Amino acid sequence: MKISKAFRGDKTIWVVFLLLSIISLVEVYSSIGLYAYSLPGTMPTGLFLKHLVIVAATYVVVILMSRVNYRFFSRFAMLGYWLTLVLLAVMLALQGGRWFRIPVIGQFQPSEIAKIVLVVFVARMLAIKKDQVAELGTFLQLLLYVGIVVALILPENFSMAALIFLVCYLMMLIGGVNRKYWWRLLLGVVFVGMVALLLMSRGGNSGAEAEGGEVLHRSGIWAERIDNWMHPDPDALTQENMARMAIARGGVFGAGIGNTVHARLMTQAHNDFIYAIIIEEMGMVGGIVVFLLYSILYFRCIRLAWRCKGRFGALTVAGLGTVIYLQALVNMSVAVGVLPVTGQTLPFISYGGTAYLFMGVALGIIQSVAADVYAVENSDPSVSKQASDPLQPSPLAAEEQT
User: Fold this and answer.
1) Which of 177, 254, 267, 359 is least surrounded, with the fewest CB atoms within 10 Å of its CB?
2) CA–CA separation, 371 vs 376, rounded Å?
């Protein structure tokens, strides 16, 4: 098999992925030092080599996933949904945080699987119920499925729960859900969010977690993060302040690769705040380039969704593309101070682990849809790239409805 044939799907997306992973290797190597020395018996080189292995493994994952017919994922969406619920429920019952520890592999975060599985599941539901999608019953059913997953993730990871809900919410809109229900839900969520913020601001406990058994036991931490964002102490040596200083030092063209100063002082420079280190070393030019790479990837996903002749494929690629793009925007917004700290990593750039691998799963599914789109167009020249509604199934995508 020729090397070029191994990389199925959209070539532009492959190029963007390659560039992001190169940036990842350079910046992780540059910023991993303090974190490595904070771990007993760990050297920066060892952590970098682990990251290199994860990046290489992610390429294998994307290649393998792109070779699977994307309709296969529809058939197992329900099973994946229930398995995800079990993992999330066990995680919540353990009251031990966001991760399972797996020997050799390391930490495993069930919510990373949930955001992919739920997008595929919602896409399948919207495809199957295309004739009833505007009915209230369908809307409530979708809301119930999404709400259960979000409720299980929320106590330990508010930002992930919000991200997943927003993506599924947008999928319902483009999938044909009656807009009056959609707008009412939006207003309800905004109202509940405002009340929650008010209660947290009054009842926050300076970041200390509440004792025993409270469902939202991290609400104090959320309140503290919001308070620090709204009322920053410019003299405090916080991760946020050092990220701002790194960005200011970078200026327009940066201090040069490997010349970071602030990464030596930040425990999360390789992870949550790696975008600030990119700007410190590559300047605003580098920061804009990274933003444009994610924007190009998202544009290609939306273009694929428009060209896909099956409803399930179109919604899946749009949903997964939105997951990657929104997570990138959240991470970059935190680094520059637009949003409070969330703990969301920068896709395909932050230090690797299971989160990096599962983003590879999402990209592989996107490339699977892309490969199918191009195969259909190349095999049938009469297929118009602009004519038919991309959310209506074609005979070639009949299996999506089963």
Assistant:
1) 267
2) 9
